[in-house]
Amino acid sequence: MPSNHELESAAGSSQHEAPVITLLSSNSTIQSLFPTFLDSSITEATMHQVVQSMTVELVVAAKKEDPSFNSIPVTLVPILRGALPMYVAASQHFADPFCVLVRGFRAQEKSSVRIDWLGRRPIPLVPKNGHIVLLDTVIATGGTILKICDELMAISGSAERHVTILSCYVSPIGLAAVAKHPLVRNVIVAATAERVDEHGYVVPYPGDVGDKLFGRAEARN
């Protein structure tokens, strides 16, 4: 089994680049929702509605790009916690999808990402000819997505797996990074940011999406 370093090197050196579809310029629904998505003062309920509505548009675009989504098994992998509303919306538009929850952690003083799979590992839940759909509200550098895909490669062994990424808001550098991973077949995004700042945040910054959806977590003593 290849090491994480080998997998990361393979992802970085691959000539593969998945097609990217950005909806903002041509989708009137996304155009109307996106300013609210960026608004730091919206209520939690409104943010849920916005993310779910944007996700529906992403799923419609994904199915148009790949009609096999109408017939193949799908495993939805929402990246917690911000992508939970994406899962709620997406799960209603795929036939009997599986679900695997995942979290990504990055220590402030370190650049490496740690992935925490919640419950059963995802690959046993993906039937033959199945497809994995990663859901992430905001992709800044792409580090979490790349780490997830690397671990999927390591778990899969020789099995063929395909990943489609659906995201509400992505930076140019994050978009370029995830599209080059060998597992990724398509990337569908609602809108792209201008850039990533020196702290790794997308610009314009929409605020902490998890906090906007679920409220700020109270500090523990």
Automatic annotation (TrEMBL):
Pfam family, one: UPRTase
Alphabetized CDD domains for the sequence: PRTases_typeI
InterPro entries in the record: PRTase-like, PRTase_dom
Phosphoribosyltransferase domain segment(s): 42-215
Family annotation (SUPFAM superfamilies): PRTase-like
Matching Gene3D superfamilies: 3.40.50.2020
Name the record gives this protein: PRTase-like protein
Protein source organism: Dothidotthia symphoricarpi CBS 119687
Organism lineage: Eukaryota, Fungi, Dikarya, Ascomycota, Pezizomycotina
